[in-house]
Design brief:
The protein is of the alpha/beta class. The protein folds into 2 domains: 187 residues, Rossmann fold (3-Layer(aba) Sandwich); 68 residues, no CATH class. The structure holds adenosine-5'-triphosphate. One of its GO terms (molecular function) is ATP binding. This is Taurine transport system ATP-binding protein.
Length: 269
């Protein structure tokens, strides 16, 4: 069991026009193995920057991220990423996409076949292994993306707005799939979303981030993800407790948006 530690992460970007952007300022948190963290916040508050630092795609200006005792300096198989869309290999079948990681890692082909079959079943695509990616709906493609990520057996799954391009109904079904995968696999998951409802429903922990400089403004521990495993998602999302929390978080974000608009008007943007 390993713990993810983000220690005093700051990230400053120097723009070509000479401006400095403090994308993240002194962000610290610990995440236990198997926790599901949702991150929410207005555009530009550093959500993707934080995820990219954890993924090892970006090096922070200062601070460090550790998985257990290992400092994360590069991308690695201990972390898997699921993007909003477009990250699948279009020229490969569904099964070949899922098999790609284990194949590159030199896993025996018989074992890969078993892994692929298991994962196709886990994500509800058992009859679709031979299909081409373009034959699948957006929701099915995201199921493949989840299966492909799981095939590498990462400790931590990083999701950058993974359901953002889906229609409302498919998105709800996929939220339930994310909860099921979380419970069945015991993986640590960090999920960025722009949807307050999705963040509250999926995050057993939730960070609401604020911009300029990017930082964690408020942290919540929430019961709804656990409830969503056994109850109808509609019942969870229409409960008085859920609605009250949604209003609280929405008004916090609206407050930040208004502040940003005010600042932009003051500098003539
Ligand atoms: N490579 C870069 N060079 C310069 N500035 C950058 C770079 N990457 C991000 N930024 C800036 O850092 C800040 C945080 O960006 P980031 O993309 O992490 O925010 P975000 O919360 O994910 O936004 P969104 O919700 O719009 O995706 C923004 O002001 C952005 O313009």
């Amino acid at each position: 069991m390993s713990e993810l530690n983000a220690n005093h992460i700051s990230m400053t970007f120097d723009e070509p026009n000479g401006n400095r952007v403090e994308a993240l300022q002194d962000v610290s948190f610990n995440l236990k193995q198997g926790e599901l963290l949702a991150i929410l916040g207005p555009s530009g508050c550093g959500k993707s920057t934080l995820l990219n630092i954890i993924a090892g795609f970006l090096a922070p200006t200062s601070g460090a991220v550790l998985n257990g005792n290992t400092k994360l300096t590069h991308s690695g198989p201990d972390r898997g990423m699921v993007f909003q869309q477009g990250a699948l290999f279009e020229w490969m079948s569904v099964a070949e996409n899922i098999a790609f990681g284990p194949k590159m890692a030199g896993v025996a082909s018989e074992k890969i076949r078993h892994t692929v079959d298991d994962l196709l079943e886990t994500v509800g695509l058992q009859d679709f292994g031979d299909k081409a990616i373009y034959e699948l709906s957006g929701g099915m493609q995201q199921r493949v993306a989840l299966a492909r990520c799981l095939a590498n057996n990462p400790d931590i799954i990083l999701m950058d707005e993974p359901l953002g391009a889906l229609d409302a109904l498919t998105r709800e079904k996929m939220q339930s799939l994310v909860l099921k995968l979380w419970k069945e696999t015991g993986k640590t998951i960090i999920l960025i979303t722009h949807s307050v409802e999705e963040a509250l429903f999926l995050g057993e922990r939730l960070f609401v981030m604020a911009p300029r400089p990017g930082r964690i403004k408020q942290e919540y521990y929430l019961p709804f993800a656990e409830e969503g495993l056994t109850k109808d998602p509609r019942d969870v999302k229409t409960s008085a407790e859920f609605i009250a929390k949604r209003e609280e978080v929405l008004s916090m974000i609206w407050g930040m948006e208004e502040e940003i608009m005010g600042n932009n008007q003051a500098v003539g943007l």
